[in-house]
Write a structure and sequence with these properties.
It contains 5 helices and no strands. By secondary structure, the protein is an all-alpha fold. It has a domain at about 35-115. Helix 2 crosses helix 3, helix 3 crosses helix 4 (about 55-65) and helix 3 packs antiparallel against helix 5 (about 70-110). It is elongated and about 60 Å long.
């Protein structure tokens, strides 16, 4: 029982962190998700490949420039947005699960629930 309590204490708790720690937690979640979920990895790889292959799209997003796009660039922009929505779906699900896990740890910590 003691070993389990120690491991719970070492975990990051969402209810007791600041904004920069939360950003780090999200970045680490994305890295972990990319290594464990092949579909997520495929989507993120495709997303960045499109940005690399179509620099005007990258300029629109990163530099917020107003540019005229070719038909092909418009099609790729639509595809890019669709991929991004799919990526967000994966990330939102992981954040939800992380929140559930932390809610349980929090409730356990304040002794609302016990194992």
């Amino acid at each position: 029982m003691f070993r389990k309590e120690v491991s719970v204490m070492k975990e990051k708790k969402l209810y007791n962190i600041d904004l920069s720690e939360f950003s780090d937690l999200i970045d680490n979640m994305r890295i972990e998700l990319k290594s464990k979920d092949l579909e997520y990895k495929k989507l993120t790889d495709e997303y960045y490949k499109i940005l690399k292959d179509f620099p005007n799209l990258q300029l629109i997003f990163e530099e917020q420039l107003e540019l005229e796009l070719s038909k092909e660039e418009c099609k790729m922009l639509q595809k890019l947005i669709s991929i991004y929505i799919d990526i967000l779906g994966f990330e939102e699900k992981e954040l939800f699960l992380l929140g559930c896990k932390n809610a349980r740890l929090y409730n356990k910590n304040i002794e609302i629930i016990r194992d």
